[in-house]
Amino acid sequence: ALTIGIVGLPNVGKSTLFNALTKNQVLAANYPFATIEPNVGVVELPDARLDRLAEIHGSAKILPATVSFVDIAGIVQGASEGEGLGNQFLANIREADAIAQVVRGFADGDVVHVAGAVNPASDLETINTELALADMQTLEKAITRLEKEVRGKKADPAVLAAAEAAKAALDAGTLLSAADVDLTLLKEFGLMTAKPMLFVFNVDEAVLTDDARKAELAALVAPATAVFLDAKVESELVDLEPDEALELLQSLGQDESGLDQLARIGFDTLGLQTYLTAGPKESRAWTIRKGWTAPQAAGVIHTDFEKGFIKAEVVSFDDLDAAGTMADAKAKGRVRIEGKDYTMVDGDVVEFRFNV
Ligand code: GDP
């Protein structure tokens, strides 16, 4: 499964956030085959459409899609030179598919800030610099090796050219996610600044309810997405009954928990989307990549479904919701038959037909 690595300076609230995530972890009963490692938190992607589908189909169970977060040790200035947890830390980030960078925005005199003061802009700079330095080292080594291999006709010159272009972009102060470089050629190097990134500002109530301040912080990381939450509040929310949790959230001017926002935005940052299936047994969201075709989507349920794909019966959730029953949606001509070239759309409710 794809994972999002949680990074940030020490004392910014990463552990507090991760603990809230694991307390909120999906029940093993729902996902009996999932092996969950101690530093991985698997959370459900909230999706109100599943409740409605279960109502329409009388489903016994609801199975949302999930998002996995990996807790990665804190980064400190000098991490790229092996300071602190250095190398192990870098190896862990390399394996993540996207990065959630936690930035401290809460003021608390009792909690020491590593750099002496709470300053989100300079913290972001520190982390991004460490990630960029680590990528430069990776690329320098790769370029030296690739030069030899290209001379011996053992490597593709296009990969060497891409590595050189990436190195030049970093030297000029551009993170690879924003650089004009063919990153698909450089996948094997696990370059960190090439990964999609989202930002979690761990703030207190004063900031949560201050839209102008949130806009300022969001501008520091744009065009990437910012999530605002109070990690301490999140860790309390997961212990409350749903109605009590909602009451607490509303008292803070929020209508969705920070963890739910993080799951939603994390999923999107990973380039994922869902499609839905529904029946008496279960209403379920399945995870696919954006842009996948119907047979690829069917393959997520079972590889045989992809091989034996014939067609898909598709109705958009909104049409089914409005019709109220499958029979009615059919009568209204809202249920389409799609072939193997169909590109899945978020919210498609699907039944596949296949040969076995
Ligand atoms: P980490 O080093 O990034 O994992 O940070 P921790 O999660 O261990 O948090 C460091 C300290 O800050 C702990 O004492 C937390 O209780 C405290 N803390 C974390 N989040 C918040 C927050 O949102 N508000 C306040 N006031 N304190 C927080």
TrEMBL record:
Cofactor(s) for this UniProt protein: Mg(2+)
PROSITE patterns registered for this protein in UniProt: G_OBG, TGS
The keyword Calcium is assigned to this record: no
Keywords, in A-Z order: ATP-binding, Coiled coil, Magnesium, Metal-binding, Nucleotide-binding
Pfam families documented for this protein: MMR_HSR1 (PF01926), YchF-GTPase_C (PF06071)
Gene3D superfamilies: 3.10.20.30, P-loop containing nucleotide triphosphate hydrolases, TGS-like domain
Keyword Magnesium attached: yes
Transmembrane segments: none
Residue ranges of coiled coil: 129-156
CDD domains: TGS_YchF_OLA1, YchF
GO MF annotations, alphabetized: ATP binding; ATP hydrolysis activity; GTP binding; metal ion binding; ribosomal large subunit binding
Domain OBG-type G: 2-249
The TGS domain, residue ranges: 271-354
Any Gene Ontology CC annotation: cytoplasm
Binding site for ATP: 11-16
Family: Belongs to the TRAFAC class OBG-HflX-like GTPase superfamily. OBG GTPase family. YchF/OLA1 subfamily.
Stored HAMAP family: YchF_OLA1_ATPase
Function in brief: ATPase that binds to both the 70S ribosome and the 50S ribosomal subunit in a nucleotide-independent manner.
Protein name: Ribosome-binding ATPase YchF
